[in-house]
């Protein structure tokens, strides 16, 4: 059905009618109800830079749309449109995206009410509507979101009381209501960090001085054991703000002496709570002053006890090792509920910043939700251990599958290799351009691309470089990765950027084409050196068939081979500025713009040499030749 010629009002009426239809994936007329919901959202937005241009009502699958992420089963799981200069309002149709887990609309100019229909999204874990112009009150329906972890509504024009229903959410890591116009008493909020600063009717006109971020871990606010000291009644009096109650408490005392007592009480309470969160090892047990419960969850992340993970991995038995890499050792584990997981035991972690910093970084990484990114299930941290828990990937890594065969045929045929390339590109595109804050992987290679039960590419180990280097300079960090995959500028200076990942992705494409390792290839031909330099030479000599994985035999498309080699060479250009962005790489892999990019690259070559006879630099020039003698450690096998 072609709807492009219909009047705007008629299209709107049809969409509203479709929204009232069956809740099945397809409406009776064969329309995907998630497509209908997204188009309804688009209709109420002003999109000056056309970022939603490919959101098309005629589509049957929204998973390829910009800023839309889908889960492995094909449902929309994330809507990420931060900093896109969008205005208009947020349609109540968002409540029809029933599998939505993340809504990121921060840093736009959206106005109007926050739709109450968002309270129907039972799987929602993250809401960020900060730095917009939303008005009205917080819908009380948001209190029904039992899995909600992050709720950021700061820097809007919201007003009215904070709904009591928010006290029903027990897993909140962050609740930020700062810089709005809220009033009335505050309910008991169970959030590790609760920010209410900048609300004059609650905090007073001098809000910067009288009301600040409260970090609770986790504890209701205000803390029950201080209510008596500070003059709080068991139930807040109607119409009485927190400042009023503080004024009564202060006036009932003896001026500064009372304030001093309050300050000391607050300090002792804070230190008591803080000390209760420090974990340590005693005879291989994980304990705290609170008699730590290993079943506790932090939002959608679970905190495991060290004892539980020891039991799951049979005391980290070497027989359960799935692989070893630069970040640590991965073990297969079986939890008490019978589920199989992969437990990564990190090495070289930074103990100076301790458990709280590690937990914060892990939770930030866990916010990156995409069908082509490895989902973090949980973590464990003690004085001597840092462990991450992931789903078990039964088909292992791309690196392992490139060397495995079933009945004499390669597991990864040409079609699957193309699918791996596209899936990996989608995951990196999300990390670089749709995730907030953006994440640089710094170790993109076949060994870090995992395969789920459907052979869908899943990018693993993203964010670990940042996690392990957070005490280093923001400009130059410790070089992490695998020689042969690391960009030249990162090898020589330690400076990384998203273009570092683009280089690694180019090498991944060559791994998919050749079936070889970046520094260990062509054994049958007695070839030793760097795969990139070898491929460049073969391309110049127009001998592409010589680089194709011999296991594929002739079962590949010659035109697609040429295109994939061109994309790989564009991604691995010497200068980072000459490499395409992942969004451009994605379009080229899908057949859009490659010819123009390739033609333009011929006019922009490697740096000009001082002597015309001196050849352009090769990757081998940046590599210590001693690296060529050893085997690079790679994670392999099911993970």
Summed up, what is this model?
The chain is an alpha/beta fold. 28% of the residues lie in helices and 16% in strands.
Overview of the molecule:
The chain is of the alpha/beta class and 639 residues long. It has three domains: 8-224, Leucine-rich repeat, LRR (right-handed beta-alpha superhelix) (Alpha-Beta Horseshoe); 281-391, Phosphorylase Kinase, domain 1; 398-629, Orthogonal Bundle (Transferase(Phosphotransferase), domain 1), CATH 1.10.510. 28% of the residues lie in helices and 16% in strands. The chain has 18 helices and 27 strands. The strands form six sheets. An eight-stranded mixed sheet has the order 2-3-5-7-9-11-13-14, with no helix packed on it. A seven-stranded mixed sheet has the order 17-18-22-23-21-20-19, sandwiched between helices. Strands 1-4-6-8-10-12 form a six-stranded mixed sheet. Strand 19 (321-325) and strand 20 form a beta hairpin. Helix 14 (498-514) runs antiparallel to helix 16. The protein is globular. The chain starts with 7 loop residues before the first helix and ends in a 38-residue tail after the last helix. Mean pLDDT is 75; it is low at 16-24, 205-210, 212-259, 264-299, 469-477, 522-526, 606-612 and 625-637.
């Amino acid at each position: 059905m072609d709807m492009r010629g219909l009047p705007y009002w008629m299209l709107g009426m049809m969409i509203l009618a479709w929204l009232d239809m069956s809740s099945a994936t397809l409406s009776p007329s064969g329309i995907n109800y998630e497509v209908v919901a997204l188009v309804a959202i688009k209709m109420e937005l002003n999109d000056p830079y056309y970022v939603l241009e490919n959101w098309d009502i005629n589509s049957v699958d929204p998973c390829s749309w910009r800023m839309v992420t889908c889960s492995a089963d094909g449902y929309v799981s994330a809507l990420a449109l931060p900093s896109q200069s969008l205005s208009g309002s947020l349609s109540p149709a968002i409540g029809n995206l029933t599998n939505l887990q993340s809504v990121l609309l921060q840093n736009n100019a959206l106005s109007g009410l926050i739709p109450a229909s968002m309270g129907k999204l039972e799987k929602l874990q993250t809401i960020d509507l900060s730095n917009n112009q939303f008005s009205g009150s917080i819908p009380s329906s948001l209190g029904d979101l039992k899995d909600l972890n992050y709720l950021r509504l700061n820097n809007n024009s919201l007003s009215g009381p904070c709904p009591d229903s928010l006290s029903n959410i027990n897993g909140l890591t962050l609740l930020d209501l700062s810089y709005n116009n809220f009033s009335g008493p505050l309910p008991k909020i169970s959030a590790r960090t609760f920010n209410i600063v900048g609300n004059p009717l609650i905090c007073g006109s001098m809000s910067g001085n009288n009301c600040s971020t409260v970090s609770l871990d986790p504890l209701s606010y205000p803390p029950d054991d201080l209510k008596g000291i500070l003059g709080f009644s068991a139930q807040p009096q109607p119409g009485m703000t927190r400042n009023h109650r503080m004024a009564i408490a202060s006036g009932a005392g003896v001026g500064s002496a009372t304030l001093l007592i309050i300050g000391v009480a607050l300090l002792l309470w804070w230190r008591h709570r803080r000390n209760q969160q420090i974990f340590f090892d005693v005879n291989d047990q994980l304990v705290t002053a609170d008699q730590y419960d290993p079943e506790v969850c932090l939002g959608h992340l679970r905190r495991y006890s060290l004892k539980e993970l020891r039991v799951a991995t049979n005391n980290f038995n070497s027989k359960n090792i799935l692989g070893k890499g630069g970040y640590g050792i991965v073990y297969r584990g079986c939890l008490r509920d019978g589920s199989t997981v992969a437990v990564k035991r990190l090495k070289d972690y930074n103990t100076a910043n301790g458990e709280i910093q590690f937990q914060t970084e892990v939770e930030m990484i866990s916010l990156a939700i995409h069908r082509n990114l490895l989902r973090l299930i949980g973590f464990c941290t003690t004085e001597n251990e840092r462990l991450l828990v992931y789903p078990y990937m039964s088909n292992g890594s791309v690196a392992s599958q490139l060397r495995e065969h079933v009945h004499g045929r390669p597991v990864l045929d040409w079609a699957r290799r193309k699918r791996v390339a596209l899936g990996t590109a989608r995951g990196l595109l999300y990390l670089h351009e749709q995730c907030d804050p953006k994440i640089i992987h710094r170790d993109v290679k076949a060994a870090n691309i995992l395969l789920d039960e459907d052979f869908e590419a899943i990018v693993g180990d993203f964010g670990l470089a940042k996690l392990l280097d957070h005490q280093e300079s923001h400009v130059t960090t410790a070089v992490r990765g695998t020689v042969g995959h690391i960009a030249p500028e990162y090898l020589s200076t330690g400076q990384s950027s998203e273009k570092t990942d683009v280089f690694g992705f180019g090498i991944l494409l060559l791994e998919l084409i050749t079936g070889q390792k970046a520094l260990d290839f062509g054994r049958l031909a007695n070839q030793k050196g760097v795969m990139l330099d070898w491929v460049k030479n073969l391309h110049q000599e127009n001998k592409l068939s010589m680089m194709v994985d011999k296991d594929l035999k002739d079962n590949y498309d010659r035109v697609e081979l040429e295109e994939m080699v061109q994309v790989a060479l564009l991604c691995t250009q010497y200068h980072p500025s000459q490499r395409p962005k992942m969004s451009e790489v994605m379009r080229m892999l899908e057949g859009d713009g490659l010819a123009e990019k390739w033609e333009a690259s011929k006019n922009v070559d490697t740096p000009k040499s001082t002597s015309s006879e001196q050849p352009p630099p090769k990757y081998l020039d940046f590599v210590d030749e001693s690296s060529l003698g050893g085997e690079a450690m790679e994670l392999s096998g099911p993970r």
